[in-house]
Amino acid sequence: MNRPCTITFDDKKLTGNADEPLIDFLENHGISLPNVCYHPSLGAIETCDTCWVEVNGEMQRGCALRTEEGLNISSRSAQATAARHEGMDRLLAKHELYCTVCENNNGDCRVHNALVEMDIPIQRYEFQPKPYPKDTSSPFYTYDPDQCILCGQCVEACQNVEVNETLSIDYASENPRVLWDGGKEINDSSCVHCGHCVTVCPCNALQENTMYGQTGPLTALPWSLKRPMIDVVKEVENTTSAKPITGISELDATWRQPGIKRTKTVCTYCGVGCSFEMWTRDRKILKVQPTPDAPANGISTCIKGKFAWDFVNSEKRLTTPLIRENGQFREASWDEALDLVARRLLNVRDIHGPQSVGFIGSSKASNEEAYLTQKIARPIIGTNSVDNSSRYCQNPATKGLFRTVGYSGDAGTIKDIEQAEVVVLVGSNTAENHPVIASRIKSSQKLHGQKLVVFDPRKHEMAERANLFMRPNASTDLIWASALSRYMFDNDLADHEFLERWVNNVDEYRESLAPFTLDFAEQKTGIPKQQLIEAAELIGRAKSVCLLWAMGITQHSHGSDTSTALSNLLLVTGNYGKPGTGGYPMRGHNNVQGASDFGCLRNMYPGYEKVTDEDVRKRWAKGWGVKPEQLSLEEGWGNFLMVQAAADDKLKAMYIIGEETAFSDSNTHNVHSAFESLDFMVVQDMFLSRTAEFADVVLPACPSVEKEGTFVNTERRIQRFYQVLEPLGDSLPDWRILTDLAARMGHDWGYNHPSEIMAECASISPLFAGVSYERLEGWKSLLWPVAEDGTDTPLLYTDGFPTEDGKASLFVLEWQEPLEAADEEYDLMLDNGRLLEHFQGSNQTGRSQGIWDQVPRSFVEVSPELAAERNIQDGTWVRLTSRRDSREFPALVTDRVAGKTLYLPIHFGKPGVNALTGEHTDPIVHTPAYKETAVKLEVLDKRTEPPLPSTNYRFGKRTPNEGVAVEVKWANEDYTLPPAQQTNPRKM
């Protein structure tokens, strides 16, 4: 609870929250205290000396002050004013002012703004260039030491927000600067190009390369012209004072504003759901600027969200419909293309029946577009064969949650993960797949003592940082999870009070754990018994535990059972329904959660209502204005089953939206063969993807930045995104295409804006009853379930579970061997997954040269022990052969993998992993067991350069520290407290 307090500031009584940073408190009252180094997401760094005030006669830095009852503060005293001016003078000795030709003079340069507020007439200390060149090595941003004021915000962001721990400042140096790995070039360091440092920089010392020459009337001038202009202006400043020049730069900042558009959007990559402003001039994307208001990410981004947007303006974008004739595509009008699609789909339905048509919705399109995809499938075609890419990744987790606790989403929010006493990561390479969530965990561990437990066959970054890291054998996670549950019961660590009040089936479940002894777990998983005990004690004695899992669990032949076992463990220890607890299956795509939430599932209407329930069918039929008989009561086929049905000549037509099914489904040969056997295939996408190459009609769709809508992130958080740019060429938003298609099929829905689609869904689905665009305006968000009055649910299960009796259930499980394992011939297991730099099939990230240069080719990771045994070195080519096919890759020798486990990134299509994976699936939800691929390895007589460039961040050496070492600066003999003048202002 916030406590009120009243302070006196410059003789005015101000009332607000106690224990609030003074700068924020004053800002809420419309009062600006000049400052440069303060950032609300970073707190007080105390490096810039521009915010001095007098408190009860004592000089203090305003950024470090927090409000309390009775504070009496003066910013107008002669001493405070002189101290602030001295602080600014010291900054200007390190920062060359040339605002009118500077790309950063856009109203948010804090050095410029503080200078204007202080109305400083002349610069006391002469600027002198530093003996360092600009660092332009990064393809994404530039560091200019001559503009750097040594405020340290970049260091604080890197060390304690992102916690990549790359940046530092050597205040003891004669010419201090920001250092990457202690003095490396940016692109030769451990920098992951997340952009945190650029986001928080208060001036132009760190700047996106896309900003250069793009923002103001004079910024495009070559430096050969800018330099003489700057020199002339400096002479004028020294004779007439800086005020006229400052006035001109103020005008320049104002003149720029109409040409620079700032639009809130939501990231199109992973499931974290980062939101930010996108700055554009015409079709040029200038930069991505996150804000503390963003509910999921605050100021955080990753390399993709911050920099991987070149695909939007790619010359490879589809801009007009295509129709296949005589084996070739030709351009067509929208009328011709949509008329053909409508006619052929209805014809297939009428001849072969509704079940002969299947739809795959996009996990990258909006909720509204997912809703319309299933609305075409169900009331128009009459089939429930509609699905999305969650079939390939998260459906097993969804099943595990349905079995135990009732909702198919994260139990809480990112804030809950941050505040947990213990975080357990299972089969989740969080730092690369969900970097912003990983940064929250790293920060909580570093700053607040959170304990991190990692179970994973691969030693990724989070495993390296873990307090306890265990490497289970492939496909054995159900065993250790069940053994830990048994340990809790056997050692009085189970939460009996919670179990008695909130959980069913406790006794039967406990009896079922008899086989899962620690000895059995050690034997099957390969994890030493003592480590299992240590993990059990840590989890069992913690007051709050969050457990996160991802495709390392779900993409196995029994992923549903293992997901269930993980949720069982949380129930046994009472880790649901209170802050800092719960199960968190990490969603991979930006809207894979929303695509399922809004009905792209073979067995569920929007809001997870069963298609087999007649009462549910009646409500949806009424809402859609159709007869109940038009809606099938039979579950449809999912993605995987659709492909099999096509191969068996049961599915005749497919409509695929924004999914690279030909790339991402298992056993590529069978998928391609199935597509070729279809009578009719429609693909709706931004690019002529591998999947689109099989289509009869290709419809050009828009990326999220060219339309409006909503996404649901991994937290269940619904957020609006706004249109940044006009659609490229004749491309159209998916919702517009689907609405126009439905009209041609006899169903004129008449939507003119996505808000109308959301309103319709909310009027029918209880889960979204209170969702509206008005309630999602700006940075606002809602976490489902949302009551009709708009009350949402950040933390689930606080007052029970969504079952008839309000209780969860412990689900009895048996250990089953994986459907594919290594044997004498296929003696290695091939793990696979994503890398930080790329996303999925790289249709988007692959359009950015800077991204591609970080990881330019495919490779297979080989353990040092296997490399030694078979004489493999970096760049040695190997042939991997599964029970289905062979592919060749260069090797990368790394201890990220161990023993006879290999790792292959999934992003590179032509030599793709799915030529090797099989069609064995989780029998419950039919998710392919991508992670169960046994291979044999042949060393080839071929050697090339190492597949990862030596400059890749994985080869960098981080320099962890506690943040900005301002105490070192203060202790330096060259430093004096303002308002006393500084002997060497450029250093301090």
* Most strands sheet: 7 strands, mixed
Class from secondary-structure proportions: alpha/beta
Unreliable stretches (pLDDT < 50, length at least 5) are none
Q: What proportion of the residues is helical, as a percent range?
A: 25-40%
Reading side by side through the largest sheet, how are the strands ordered?
14-13-27-26-25-15-16
How many separate helices?
Answer: 32
The average pLDDT score comes to 94
Number of strands: 37
Overall outline: globular
Q: Kindly, what is the distance between the CA atoms of the first and last residues, rounded to a whole number of angstroms?
A: 40 Å
Rg estimate, integer Å = 30 Å
Query: Which percent band covers the strand fraction?
Result: 15-25%
Query: What is the oligomeric state here?
Result: single chain
Structure description:
There is one protein chain. By secondary structure, the protein is of the alpha/beta class. The protein has 32 helices and 37 strands. The strands form ten sheets. The chain has a seven-stranded mixed beta sheet with strand order 14-13-27-26-25-15-16, with helices on both faces. The chain has a six-stranded mixed beta sheet with strand order 33-35-34-37-32-36. It starts with a strand and ends in a 17-residue tail after the last helix. The mean pLDDT is 94. Residues 79-119 form the 4Fe-4S His(Cys)3-ligated-type domain. Residues 260-316 form the 4Fe-4S Mo/W bis-MGD-type domain. This is Formate dehydrogenase subunit alpha. Keywords: 2Fe-2S, 4Fe-4S, Iron, Iron-sulfur, Metal-binding, Molybdenum, Oxidoreductase, Repeat.
